[in-house]
């Protein structure tokens, strides 16, 4: 690394070039990183909220963890509270996965009876495959 030392009228010219190089480096890093972070954030928010217009209402979660930090030990009680607030069908994210909760026995019967082909063709979760050694 070569530093060019210039004399300044005030007599403090020794550290000017080093400070200017560091300032230029910091400006370059900020110029590159800020637009990159804005682009990543906008892509993530667009993909996160892309299909929410057709979903049932539900609570908003935090990025990456969804609604997990707000759930308590008694999950059925929390779902009942959310059913009073959002209705018998609501959606929420647990981690990065979207879940639709049906909280009424009558609606469960309708969903199971009328939409059985939709649910029958779904791939099983990885945990089910791991617990059953891949046997459906």
From TrEMBL:
Organism: Helianthus annuus (Common sunflower)
Gene Ontology MF, one: heme binding
Protein name as catalogued: Putative cytochrome P450
Parts forming coiled coils: none
Pfam families named among the record's database cross-references: p450
InterPro entries: Cyt_P450, Cyt_P450_sf
């Amino acid at each position: 690394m070569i530093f060019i030392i210039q004399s300044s009228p005030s007599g403090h010219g020794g550290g000017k070039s080093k400070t200017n190089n560091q300032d230029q480096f910091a400006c370059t890093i900020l110029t590159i990183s800020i637009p990159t972070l804005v682009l990543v954030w906008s892509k993530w928010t667009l993909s996160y909220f892309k299909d929410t217009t057709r979903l049932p209402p539900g609570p908003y979660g935090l990025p990456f963890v969804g609604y997990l930090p707000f759930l308590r030990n008694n999950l059925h009680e929390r779902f009942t509270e959310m059913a009073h607030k959002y209705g018998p069908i609501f959606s929420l994210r647990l981690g990065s996965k979207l879940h639709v909760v049906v909280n009424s026995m009558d609606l469960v019967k309708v969903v199971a009876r009328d939409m059985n082909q939709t649910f029958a063709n779904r791939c099983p979760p990885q945990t089910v495959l791991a617990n059953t050694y891949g046997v459906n």
